[in-house]
Amino acid sequence: MKTHHPQSLFDFLKLFPGEPECIAYLETTRWTNGFTCPECGISDTAQRIATRPRILRCRHCHKDISLTAGTIMHATRTSLQAWFLAAYLMTSKTPGMSALQLQRQLGLSRYETAFQILHKLRVGMVRPSRDSIGLDWPVEVDETLVGGRTRGKGRGVVTSQ
Ligand SMILES: [Zn+2]
């Protein structure tokens, strides 16, 4: 999947119109060459669980792998699209956006949720990407959604000839 960087809110909505697109994005950024089980190391298509779209199940060791594990979104009840949109808003033209503004923009019922998202994104974004696997994702969003250098270029890059 070739990622391109949304230049506008309209562009963002075309790239991430809903939860499935956000899930697919997480999957392809984590496994650029297809799913490899972190538990047994076997590369194969993972099983999907209809009721748990953020989970991939290994066909070999049957381990459930969470797409959000190791990211700031781990165990979140908030939709991934809300996180992606928050990351987009934060990295675009809204510096100093307050949690209240974010809550309104995302239509979140709880102020606390908006506050946590904002805080986690801020912490993630000011740290270098290699700092911790847990903070890798927001930096990636910073680079991938809004431009900048391509993360992981040279590793796992498939050149078609
Ligand atoms: Zn496995």
Describe this structure in words.
With 161 residues, this protein is mainly alpha-helical. It has a domain of 92 residues. It is 40% helix and 5% strand. It contains six helices and three strands; from the N terminus they run H-H-E-E-E-H-H-H-H. Strands 1-2-3 form a three-stranded antiparallel β-sheet, with no helix packed on it. The two termini are 17 Å apart. The site of zinc ion has 8 residues, from loops.
Topology:
Layout: H1 9-15, H2 19-30, E1 47-48, E2 55-57, E3 64-66, H3 80-91, H4 99-106, H5 111-126, H6 136-144
Antiparallel strand pairs: 1-2, 2-3
Bound molecules: zinc ion.
- Overall morphology: elongated
Counting DSSP E segments of at least 2 residues, the number of strands comes to 3
Quick check: average pLDDT? 76
Poorly predicted regions = 128-140, 142-161
Approximately how much beta-strand content do the residues carry?
Answer: under 5%
Distinct small molecules: zinc ion
Sequence of strands across the biggest β-sheet: 1-2-3
Question: Which sheet architecture does the biggest sheet show?
Answer: 3 strands, antiparallel
Q: What is the rounded Rg?
A: 16 Å
Succession of helices and strands:
HHEEEHHHH
Percent of residues in helices: 25-40%
Note the gap between the termini: 17 Å
**H/I helix tally:** 6
Helix/strand class: mainly alpha
